[in-house]
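Sequence, please.
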């Protein structure tokens, strides 16, 4: 017959295994959440960067229409700057 001590050890190890599976799934979920937030933040930062470049171009070069924009980018030094 199986001793009481062996049954206790078996159930304790089973409970410990279930606990580790729960922790593993929680860590995997947290990892996915963190990476999705990082990806969203990168997209926002790039959008803010483009918006700042746009505002800088419009304010420093006093653009009024598409022709002035084309004239501005026809200069090689200006193209390299942006």
């Amino acid at each position: 017959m199986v001793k009481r001590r062996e049954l206790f050890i078996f159930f304790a190890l089973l409970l410990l295994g279930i606990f580790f599976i729960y922790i593993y799934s929680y860590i995997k979920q947290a990892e996915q959440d963190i990476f999705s937030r990082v990806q969203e933040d990168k997209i926002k930062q790039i959008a803010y960067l483009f918006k700042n470049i746009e505002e800088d171009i419009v304010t420093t070069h006093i653009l009024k229409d598409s022709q002035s924009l084309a004239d501005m980018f026809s200069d090689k030094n200006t193209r390299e700057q942006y």
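The two ends are 81 Å apart (CA to CA).
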